[in-house]
Write a structure and sequence with these properties.
The chain has a 5-stranded mixed β-sheet with strand order 7-8-6-1-15. The protein has a 4-stranded antiparallel β-sheet with strand order 2-5-9-10. Strands 12-13-11-14 form a 4-stranded antiparallel β-sheet. The radius of gyration is 19 Å and the shape is globular. It is α+β, with helices and mostly antiparallel strands. The protein is built from 9 helices and 15 strands. The structure holds ligand DP6. The site of ligand DP6 has 16 residues, from α5.
Length: 331
């Protein structure tokens, strides 16, 4: 009897960290050096299908319609974690697409590995609990551990050497505090240095790396309190501080990592001006030049309109907070 073809399709959304993750305590298991806190978005999506097919000799991976040998190896190694649990060797065909620019600082690896983890789990009939899925998604990308969940999510750095305590967990539902995020796109080009390489370079060369990790751990506790109290001003202070401290440690690497462009800086100034005029908004920026403006409910339209006027901003999209990764279809 031939083994059955097993497939599933899952959807996941990117998340935006308000307390940033930038540095690992273990490269092999992809363990973060500090915890982080994020919001999962609802307007940007990754849709991933995985099909374990006994007729395949090798994994076949199509990302946004293209094959890439390095990505295929990375995804094959990720799927090995699931194959090992299921006790199968079957190769898979993976098709994944984003409805937003890939690799441009919009957390495509977060939604990508979260969707793949959920699809592979369903296709192989593993039925893992979401904590387990978060642990596995982390192996693909640290931020992917957070996109397993919706709303406000906290990722623990953990202490264990085997990494079994480094997973994300939901902190607050999106409906409990429906903040909005304006994503201002300042370029659609792929970034020159991936997060993974940038983190490694920062850890190895920045004289401020240890201080950065200590700050991130301290900010996490304060941000958790701010979220649970729905204290926007406090979260705004902490969110901008965490973002700027991360970029400061990036800049202090040797040679320095500069992810911003001129429009990035103008967007930051615009957001500060809006805040002085009474808008409930703060910025955050990841390893790329896009600016995410986190807004109090009802303030996003005004913020998006202002950001669209900033020279160099190609588009400003409003997103609510969304749900975690989920299966769409499967057999
Ligand atoms: C700047 O999760 O992409 O977006 O674990 O190496 O895959 P790897 O890194 P990744 O890094 C995300 C970095 C960040 C900040 C954040 O999302 O916390």
């Amino acid at each position: 009897m031939t083994a059955p073809i097993r497939y599933a399709t899952a959807t996941a959304q990117p998340n935006i960290a308000l307390v940033k993750y930038w540095g690992k305590r273990d490269d092999e298991l992809n363990l973060p050096a500090a915890g982080s806190l994020s919001v999962t978005l609802d307007a940007l999506h990754t849709r991933t299908s995985v099909r374990f097919d006994p007729a395949l000799d090798a994994d076949d991976v199509l990302l946004n319609g293209e094959r890439d040998a390095a990505q295929t190896r990375k995804i094959g190694a990720f799927l090995d974690l699931f194959r090992a649990r299921a006790g199968v060797e079957t190769r898979a065909r993976v098709e994944s697409g984003n409805d937003f620019p890939t690799g441009a600082g919009l957390a495509s690896s977060a939604s990508g590995f979260a969707a793949l983890a959920v699809a592979a789990d369903r296709a192989l009939g593993l039925n893992l609990a979401s904590r387990e899925l978060s642990l596995l998604a982390r192996r693909g990308s640290g931020s992917a551990a957070r996109s397993i969940f919706g709303g406000f999510v906290e990722m623990a750095a953990g202490k264990r050497e085997d990494g079994e305590d480094a997973f994300a967990a939901p902190l607050l539902d999106a409906v409990a505090w429906p903040l909005e995020v304006v994503v201002a796109i300042t370029t659609r080009a792929k970034k020159a240095i991936t997060s993974r390489d940038g983190m490694d370079h920062t850890r190895k060369t920045s004289p401020f790396y240890r201080d950065w990790i200590a700050t991130a751990n301290a900010d996490l506790g304060d941000a958790r309190v701010a979220v649970l109290a729905r204290d926007f001003d406090k979260l705004a202070r902490l969110g901008e501080a965490s973002c700027l401290a991360m970029h400061a440690v990036m800049l202090s690497a040797r040679p320095g990592l500069i992810y911003w462009n001129a429009a990035t800086l103008d967007c930051m100034r615009c957001i500060h001006a809006l805040r002085r005029e009474g808008a409930g908004v703060f910025f955050t920026i990841d390893a790329g030049p896009q600016v995410k403006a986190v807004c109090l409910p009802g303030h996003a339209a005004r913020v998006a309109a202002a950001l669209r006027e900033v020279q160099g901003v190609e588009e400003a999209q409003i997103s609510g907070l969304g749900e975690g990764a989920r299966v769409e279809a499967g057999a």
